[in-house]
Design a protein that fits this description.
alpha/beta, Spore Coat Polysaccharide Biosynthesis Protein SpsA, Chain A, 7-stranded mixed sheet, 8 helices, 7 strands, globular, Nucleotide-diphossugar_trans, Glyco_trans_2-like, Glycosyltransferase_2
């Protein structure tokens, strides 16, 4: 069974080559699709000169549209039976793809969330208030979806391809996470959660999500759960 790895990428010149190397070393047969969201720091030049020839597709957005828009583009291009999201930083480990896709391979799940707050795998200690915010957003989302996640905001989400390609994703930025959670819950998908490692980075190292995205996530939780 082929796994499509969707890598949204914006201004990741310092990590993109390492991420691709790590994905190619993963123990799963991967289709690698990179969506560059109009990077301005030299990432595009690295993609064109070093990476295009060793991955399946690199798609370039002519203007910056956000992570959700990049994922929308990548999902549409995927051909694997399972689709997973891989951020273009070094926070998540591609060696854990087998953990993520095992419930789908066994026919037990339609969607799998990789939880940073479950299990005994290593976690870099970074921001306390980010952890509080993530848990608050997960709690609020769970209250409206009536599913029992521990980490709604995780990057690592794996889907049966027919599921993710059947959904119309509207959010262009980090609102993708609460939107997709609400929509797979409304579809009555069978959702599993597995514990994953997390090698978080600081803002100095390139982390992009901020407090404004947290407030927008609250809006998205209500919007996509309460509106038809």
């Amino acid at each position: 069974m082929k796994l499509s790895v969707i890598i949204p990428c914006y201004n990741e010149v310092g990590t993109i080559s390492q991420v691709i190397e790590a994905v190619k070393k993963s123990p799963v047969d991967c289709e690698i699709i990179i969506v560059d969201d109009c990077s301005t720091d030299g990432t595009r030049q690295v993609l064109e000169s070093q990476i295009e020839s060793i991955v399946d597709q690199v798609i370039y957005h002519p203007r910056n549209r956000g992570k959700g828009a990049a994922l929308r583009t990548g999902f549409a291009a995927a051909t694997g039976e399972i689709v997973i999201v891989q951020d273009a930083d070094l926070e998540y480990d591609p060696q854990e793809y087998p953990l993520m896709i095992e419930p789908i391979l066994k026919g037990k799940a339609d969607v799998v969330f990789g939880s940073r707050f479950q299990g005994g795998r290593p976690h870099r200690v970074v921001y306390f208030w980010h952890m509080v915010g993530n848990k608050f957003l997960t709690l609020l989302s769970n209250m409206l979806t009536n599913i029992n996640l521990t980490d709604m905001e995780t990057c690592y989400k794996a889907f049966r391809r027919e599921i993710i390609q059947s959904l119309r994703i509207q959010e262009n930025r980090f609102g993708f996470e609460p939107e997709i959670t609400a929509k797979v819950a409304k579809l009555n998908c069978i959702i599993y959660e597995v514990g994953i490692s997390y090698y978080g980075r600081t803002y100095k190292e390139g982390k992009k999500i901020g407090w404004k995205d947290g407030f927008w996530a609250i809006f998205c939780i209500f919007k996509y759960n309460l509106l038809p």
